[in-house]
Amino acid sequence: QVQLVESGGGLVQAGGSLRRSCAASGRISSINTMAWYRQAPGKQRDLVASIISNGNTNYADSVKGRFTISRDNAKNTVFLQMNSLKLEDTAVYYCYVRLNFPSRSYWGQGTQVTVSS
Prior knowledge:
The chain is an all-beta fold. The termini are far apart.
């Protein structure tokens, strides 16, 4: 199977930065999409940012200009650089990977990001 290992969560002060990473390992033929989602208590899980194999990216309006998603295809790793963090960014952040051949998806376990005042 495929495993997603997340790192980089934790506590950060408002206005600060945090860098997340997610490395996929196991039986991988080809990765189509890599993405980050987040879920705050009592809210649904929403897309934060995604990046596809050709490098095209998509961001939630709430994080545009502050977050940057990137990927290292050779290492099957996706990153999320989070700058100018706000209190409302506090959530559990989940890594997501969609593979090709055959098409299937995997979720990371989720890691808490807490932004304090």
